[in-house]
Amino acid sequence: MRTTTLGSKGPQVGVIGLGCMGMTHSYDMAARRDDATSVSVIHQALDLGMTLIDTADVYGPHTNEELVGRALAGGHRARAVLATKVGLITDSAPAASSGSTSPGAVRDGRPEHVRESIDGSLRRLGTDHVDLYQLHRVDPQVPLEETWGAMAETVAAGKARHIGLSEVTAGEIRRAQAVHPVTSVQSELSLWTRDALAEVLPYCQEQGIAFLPFSPLGRGFLTGRFSSFDDLPQDDFRRRLPRFQQDALRANLAIVGRVRQVAEQAGATPAQVALAWVLAQGQHVVPIPGTKTPKYLTDNAGAADIQLSAADLAELDALPAPQGTRY
Ligand SMILES: NC(=O)c1ccc[n+]([C@@H]2O[C@H](COP(=O)([O-])OP(=O)(O)OC[C@H]3O[C@@H](n4cnc5c(N)ncnc54)[C@H](OP(=O)(O)O)[C@@H]3O)[C@@H](O)[C@H]2O)c1
Question: pLDDT at residue 95 above 50?
Fold first, then answer.
């Protein structure tokens, strides 16, 4: 796979990474959690050059880091650029009310929480450092400078090589930069969630900060997998999201129909088109599509080689806005 630098001073990574959240959290757990297959999907990703492996302490909580740690044992760690996150805590299953995929979660940006959490993450991941330590959400109760200062301490202590932010404004990135360099910003970006294009993505480009789109496949919707609310498994987090409610979902199928048409023109799959559009937003963009399914992983890796024509891009740029908010 083609590679790029993570931010101006970070490591080389494949231009598409792997999001591991759905392997133990949020999506379709009762029916489809299958750790052995997930471990092999992580190995397959490394073989394909999708080296940026993304997890978080809140996924599970903790089960996702444990799974990734098992996958990276036995020499695989050195092949990965390992990213995890801190700053959300939960002891409950996801619900759709507080602006994250772990919304039973509350934000905790206290410096002491960051200092304690890194050690737990390293233990679960079976490593002495992570390559990227990300602040999952800014805690409105704690000045960002204090939280970010504690994130910077993890770098000074050799426990993290680089630090990044998630779901922040350009103003928040600036404030963090005044304390310690920001290597990456992870926020939702896809054909049906484009808020970051206005300010955050161009600001990251200008500053040499990597932008890591999460949910780049619209939580699977843009791949054309779901045509009805009833297609979503009973315990699936997406059942609580506005865009997946029956009326909204039906209206949003118009978006998928047009993605399919572009895919046919481009000789690609809808997932590949969705990822190729995200990649076309800038050299600093490294999407982290999530999957626990070997054939989807191969499909997603293939997106790195899809060149969308100017006409295809224009058609995708002009897609209608979705019905329903993100959370
Ligand atoms: N920073 C944050 O706040 C935040 C929030 C959400 C997510 N994330 C990160 O971003 C990563 C990706 O986001 P996401 O998992 O929410 O959404 P996503 O990548 O947009 O979509 C994942 C869904 O798409 C399905 N899928 C993947 N590739 C496919 C393909 N080629 N064809 C058909 N279906 C396909 C997956 O199926 P299977 O799972 O069944 O294989 C899964 O249901 C997460 O794993 C996590 O690391 C971060």
Answer: no
